[in-house]
Design goal:
The chain has four helices and seven strands. It is an alpha/beta fold and 131 residues long. It has one domain. The chain is globular, with a radius of gyration of 14 Å. The protein has a seven-stranded mixed β-sheet with strand order 2-1-3-4-5-6-7, covered by helices on one side.
Length: 131
């Protein structure tokens, strides 16, 4: 399941739908509105194979790696969030759920950096590696 933070830009959601990217959003159709950041991780622990997209850099922490979910910090302009959700989900390294679980990623215009469960080093993937 792709889960968007509550503050995901409203004008970007129709673009995701147009591209047939299924998602749920905190406060709209998943959990309650006003959910605090500290309550999101326990929520993800109870979820099933969630990929959570946020623009909050507090979620880009190696300590948050867990095999039940993937955290994606979208370090891009609000107007670019839908495009980078799609690019991330289409990237060969992250294109299927089983490849994403256990990751905490930072997506930005140049590349993707990510922490992986049971790996100490920050890893890096360029956009150019896409098929």
């Amino acid at each position: 399941m792709n889960l968007l933070e509550e503050n995901f830009p409203k004008d970007q959601r129709p673009q995701l739908r147009e591209w047939h990217i299924s998602f749920r959003q905190i406060g709209r159709d998943f959990a309650h509105s006003g959910l605090q950041d500290r309550d999101i991780i326990p929520l993800l622990h109870r979820g099933r194979r969630v990929t959570f997209f946020t623009q909050d850099d507090d979620f880009f922490s190696q300590a948050l790696c867990h095999p039940a979910y993937c955290l994606v910090f979208l370090d891009v302009r609000a107007d670019d969030t839908a495009d980078f959700v799609r690019r991330f989900l289409r990237h060969s390294r992250f294109s299927v759920e089983r490849k994403r679980l256990g990751l905490v990623a930072r997506v930005h215009h140049d590349s993707i950096e990510f922490w992986q469960k049971n790996h100490r080093a920050l890893q890096h993937v360029d956009w150019l590696r896409q098929p």
